[in-house]
Amino acid sequence: MNVRVAGVGLTKFGRREESSSELARDAAARAMEAVGRRPIDLLVVGNMLGESLEERASGVPRIASELGLEAAAGVRVEAASATGAAAFQVGALALESARYDRVLVVATEKMTGRRTAEVARSLAGALAPMEVAAGATMPGLAALIAQRYLARTGHAPAVLDAVSVHARRAAARNPYAQFSTAVTAAEVAASRPIALPLRLLHCAAISDGAAAVVLERGTGGVQVRGLGQGLDHFRLVDRATLSGFSATRTAAERAYAMAEIGPRDIDLAEVHDAFAPFALIDLEDLGLASAEEAPRYFAEDEATVPARPAVNPSGGVLGRGHPVGVSGLAEIVEIAQQISGDAGAHQIARPVRRALAQSIGGLASHNFVTILAAGAG
């Protein structure tokens, strides 16, 4: 694919005073510093909850005005909690069409201005209506998946605690992450029950933030190598299994095929862990670990963690925070920075040639996998 990452930008995640468009402006300005005066032909905006939580529509012209991009074309993308990843794929494919030379992809979300119950109600819009009518919530259904996963694998619930400990330990090294302090397994296990076996520290936090990527046609630097998307039944009751995500497996198969590589070629993976069990499931679905191996990637003793691939050095969704429409693009910013050696305090020690970002939309009904590589790697 003749598309490369020319610049990236990120705001700190957490409770922010700025609006979603102001956050988008800040992240985009940082990404555009790398291309200077070279024009942006297309603006792709990712946002999930602007209408419901901010009561704001027309995000594309609003953000274009913030950035002085009125001469560019523009489009908004929404794919639930995979919005950022979907926006990236739209931008990359637009460049591949050869109609555009340079695309700015920006994802933004403002969630903390509303009560938790309002946010939960808005997030439930990504679930099947019949399940919501029966009283289902996102954490409730995630807990059902966690129960099925533990039953299938025979793992003890403590493996979920280890995922959260790993996430917060990594986030403490990431200046953009919402959480800057580590937690212990005992603290995770003692946190408030949400929907058992899930407790508060097994669940991603409501957050504000924005991420941006400038893409352009050409080779060199950080290259886009593989793109994949997969769909699954909207209703959980219609799915073949509840302890894994078919949409991830399909997306990964397509991304690996496009990149002409396999799971063994991946040096680093940013996986979607809005709930702790998802991180373990993701590694299986991506072909990066077996059910028996997956918990080892989150071991407290880092000397025992498998050498390849590195997993969620950013802190993941659990540690970085989860402004839902942004998380998928934030993962891509992270792997681009790790490949170029620009991740700062949380840069991993060994070189990263090929990296993968996996994003979950809704309750895994539409998932995305993106593979980036160094140069022609």
Structure description:
- By secondary structure, the chain is of the alpha/beta class.
- It has 13 helices and twelve strands.
- The longest helix is centred in the middle third of the chain and has 16 residues.
Walk me through the topology.
Blueprint: E1 3-10, H1 20-32, E2 42-46, H2 50-54, H3 59-67, E3 73-77, H4 83-96, E4 102-109, H5 116-123, H6 129-133, H7 138-153, H8 158-171, H9 185-190, E5 193-195, E6 198-199, E7 209-217, E8 222-231, H10 246-259, E9 268-270, H11 276-285, E10 310-311, H12 316-320, H13 327-340, E11 354-361, E12 366-374
Parallel strand pairs: 2-3, 2-4, 9-10, 9-11
Antiparallel strand pairs: 1-7, 1-8, 4-7, 5-6, 8-12, 11-12
Helix pairs in contact: 1-3, 4-13, 8-11
Gist of the model:
The chain has 377 residues and is α/β, with parallel strands linked by helices.
Global Rg: 19 Å
- Main sheet summary: 10 strands, mixed
Please tally the β strands and state the result. Answer: 12
Q: Please state the overall shape, judged from the principal axes of the Cα atoms.
A: globular
Can you give the helix content as a percent range?
25-40%
CATH superfamily of the domain at 3-114 and 207-215: Thiolase/Chalcone synthase
Structural class by helix and strand composition: alpha/beta
Widest β-sheet, arrangement of strands: 3-2-4-7-1-8-12-11-9-10
- Unreliable parts: none
State the end-to-end distance: 12 Å
Q: Strand content of the residues, in percent?
A: 15-25%
